[in-house]
Amino acid sequence: MIYETVETSLINELTPSGYLTIDLAALRRNYAQISNRVAPARAAGVVKANAYGLGARQVAAALLAEGCRDFFVAEFVEAVQLRPHLPPEARLFVLNGLQPGNEALCASINAIPVANSLLQLRRWRETATTLGRRLKVVIQFDTGMSRLGIAPEERGAVRAILEDAPLDVLFIMSHLACADEAAHPQNVQQLAEMQRAIADTQRTELSFANSGGVFLGSDYHGGLVRPGIALYGGAPTFGVPNPMEAVVRLEVAVVQTRRVPASTAIGYGASFLATGEMRLATIAAGYADGLPRTLSNRGAVYFEGTRLPIVGRVSMDSIIIDISALPEGALDLGSLVEVIGPNQSLDEVAHAAGTISYEILTSLGGRYRRRYV
Asked: Is 48 noted as a catalytic residue in this protein?
């Protein structure tokens, strides 16, 4: 109990080893841009995984202020956590649907499951019948991703389940597998399959487009689009300039600086040998903080516009950088270097790590001080 009191009273007074700044004004502008692009369709906010690691409550509040009234989470526990922070008129959708036993609570908090299978749909119909009231639902069809959704051959069974059921189907939906590659042929194939699902189920309200799908054109928009990474500043489409504003900035503090002679082994496994006399700094973040080990000897950070390469392997809690390009004494204990920011975008960090912006963003750890601006 004493330790808990100390933590509560002092945590905000500590000097952190890193700052993660979240620009909620930029987030709102990204949402507004998407809303304008897809009108008259509506734009939802995908806030699953704690709003891609940026704070679901804070992000949802910003989106609400910009006019968003539709929110998607992945798991029902996320809906339970977020529902008290949304107004009654906001719609809260659960992408993975419900595990058995969660149906009654879902109805009680006015969350809306996405039924991904006939079994989920049947259980939701049974819940509505037991409660004696109509319940809202979204039905997902698999159109070619083979991840979630009802298969084409099961569409007839959907019609049978819905017959005289106390259910209001708000949308039928599917998910695009290759929307971030605008020219990929699967986009057109999935659109054609989605149109067949509309015909088979005689349901016209559609939710289809994710972030990339927003930029594929109005044929993909339906009534409700579901942007995620684009809201948070990630590029929605490969190979073209990113139309979204940056939302996150990550700065990490220096722990130590040193000078080493040529041929000095640097980091775990001695994977890097100093090519000459070098000046190094160790910064206070590593793979436990969402900076992948694959950045070893590949990635970089920046200080006042100067690129500082990562040398040696990324450790759990620290990274070594080459600061030889900086003037002597430019960095010292507590100096902040830029990991994500004006000189290096989220997508560029992801590319250097051999991964995608989603993974970087959702992995940024809890040891950073989060600042909302």
From this structure: yes
Contacts of 273 (CB under 8 A, 6+ apart): 263, 264, 265, 266
Query: 372 Cβ partners below 8 Å, 6+ apart?
Result: 21, 22, 24, 55, 58
Write the single-letter amino acid at 140.
Q
- 31, 48, 220, 302: the active-site residue: 48
pLDDT at residue 36 tops 80: yes
Residue 9: which pLDDT band, with cuts at 50, 70 and 90? low
Within 10 angstroms of residue 100's Cβ, the number of other Cβ atoms is 8
* Other C-beta atoms lying within 10 Å of the C-beta of residue 58: 18
Known catalytic membership, residue 268: yes
**Structure token digits, residue 121:** 């749909």
Q: Tell me the pTM.
A: 0.95
Query: In angstroms, rounded to a whole number, what is the distance separating the alpha carbons of residues 365 and 340?
Result: 14
Longest dimension (CA), the chain: 80
CB atoms within 10 A of CB 147: 10
> Which pLDDT band holds residue 32 (cuts at 50, 70, 90)?
very high
Distance between CA atoms of 141 and 152, rounded to whole angstroms? 7
pLDDT beyond 90 at 1? no
The helix/strand/coil state of 38 is helix
Whether the bond between 40 and the residue before it is cis, its omega within 30 degrees of 0, is yes
Q: Of the listed 19, 220, 232, 268, which one is catalytic?
A: 268
